[in-house]
Write a structure and sequence with these properties.
The protein contains 2 helices and no strands. The protein is mostly helical and 112 residues long. It has a domain of 68 residues. The radius of gyration is 16 Å and the shape is flat.
């Protein structure tokens, strides 16, 4: 393994951790703003949180590619799930390997 790839594998979990922390912080602020009657601002913070979650997904994909060379195993993550409004597991996976959520359902609007 080359030096750049080794450094990348060391830093990816660090980036994932920070994105998760900041995403949760944005969610918390959004909830507070909703409670205080600021739905438009809360919606923007939720959107920002989702963008951070998307970035976490891309980092997870990069980690798999760095480790195995391909994304042969389908990621069963929130970004390709048919999200349910009541989901309590959204973006709650650890920063380890991908997992299959027991509630996972492929979003049929996304092309394979």
């Amino acid at each position: 393994m080359n030096e750049t790839k080794e450094k990348l594998q060391k830093i990816l979990p660090h980036w994932e951790e920070h994105l998760a922390e900041h995403g949760q912080e944005l969610e918390n602020w959004a909830e507070r703003l909703e409670e205080e009657g600021e739905p438009r601002l809360a919606a923007k913070l939720k959107e920002a949180s989702l963008l951070l979650a998307s970035a976490r997904l891309k980092l997870a994909e990069a980690k798999i590619i760095a480790e195995s060379g391909s994304l042969a195993e389908e990621l069963a993550l929130c970004a390709i799930c048919a999200w349910r409004e009541t989901c309590q597991k959204r973006f709650s996976r650890d920063t380890g390997s991908p997992f299959r959520c027991p509630d996972f359902t492929r979003d049929v609007t996304l092309k394979a």
